[in-house]
Amino acid sequence: MSTLINPTTGAELDSSPASASLEEADAVIERAHDAFPGWRDVAPGERARLLRAFAAVVDEHLEELAQLEVLNAGHTVGNARWEAGNVRDCLNYYSAAPERLFGRQIPVAGGTDVTFHEPLGVVGIIVPWNFPMPIAAWGFAPALAAGNTVVLKPAELTPLTAIRIGELALEAGLPPGVLNVVPGKGSVVGERFVTHPLVRKVCFTGSTAVGKKIMAGCADQVKRVTLELGGKSANIVFADTDVAAAAASAPYAVFDNAGQDCCARSRILVQRSAYDEFVGRLETAVRALRVLDPADEQSEMGPLVSAAQRDTVQAYVDGATVAFTGTAPDGPGWWLPPTVVESRDTSEPVWREEVFGPVVAVMAFDDEDEAVALANDTDYGLSGSIFTSDVGRALRVARRVEAGNLSVNSHSSVRYWTPFGGYKQSGLGRELGPDAPNAFTEEKNVFIAH
Ligand code: NAD
Question: Which residues form the Aldehyde dehydrogenase domain (predicted)?
């Protein structure tokens, strides 16, 4: 693996792991396969206890994990603590699942019909660099709870927390081979998860372009696949809302994690009669954002993850008409200020494409129908917000926007106990929520004649 860089300073880290080769990936997949029958047959109460023990060990190492993410990914320390806590909370939540994998008893003539939820075997989880810890846990916590073993490939840029979490699993008493972390390239390790016949399901989070390749690759073996992909979500602000509150919230809906967030509301639609007031208040809020060293407790936004990502985002900014920006350190490291663009043309790249950086485009609309049409005028459908004081309108618009996760008068996106996933090219299947463990099982139907 190429040398890891601290995005805040541009300095090399001295802890870059080696990239797994194809042969090493195969060996880990086989180890996970060998560990599967033992893990599947662990009594439900014992599997639950082990997941709770894993959560407790993560909790003991929360600060260490958070600091590692600050170093490797440039996340603000406040966010990184939340992310490590999310791993713990997911494990605790899904530790209830082994004892609740209920089948059904279905009325039939001439016998009894029952269903069982059986684990799949080895599950391959491929994660991106933007939220290395939570996204890994959203896959492995329900997969392990349902009795599967896991091979987890972190992103090339941000493998350190996943590797540490794998060590903590062993420390907590999970049997060797149950949760395996395989750092390496997408084109080697990730593709092997897709092609290896012993991997029974691939959970992929990342770009839509790679997601399409993975879906096509999985088709060859009719392999189960979950895709959590890109987004271009809309934040719809109606004039009947508390405009000050909506404008104060908007920066956090898009600039969190320096905009490297699949749920970022990177298009703001504002009803024309409130447009000037909203944009004025947004400017005040954006200029007040504290873009600081992510290790600083006051920091609200850190650097971008890499020089390449910063250059990609800068190219969008160069091609757009910038209305105003916040501030950012000059460097070293991969910094950009939070940037607001006023858009009048829906064909502009900054309006249509997932920028994945601290850039938001604002546009005016006249009525509810136009707002919904603009929000839906995208191939994506992951997330979004609606700000209004009219409950009827909130529900009408929420039902008409083609996206998997919407918030009303809020910019919150993900709760591990509610389902999460995308419409259209933002994904396939759902993660999280109470049903997630079932997505890591086959439902078997058994008819007993009597
Ligand atoms: P990416 O698609 O480049 O990479 C994601 C992962 O896939 C990495 O681990 C990478 O090594 C691996 N990979 C790359 N090529 C592969 C291949 N051919 N076969 C198998 N694996 C391969 O994405 P990224 O740049 O790391 O992350 C940013 C993207 O992730 C954005 O589009 C963002 O919207 C998306 N994302 C989506 C969600 C969601 O839940 N919907 C969450 C976070 C990020």
Answer: 4-446
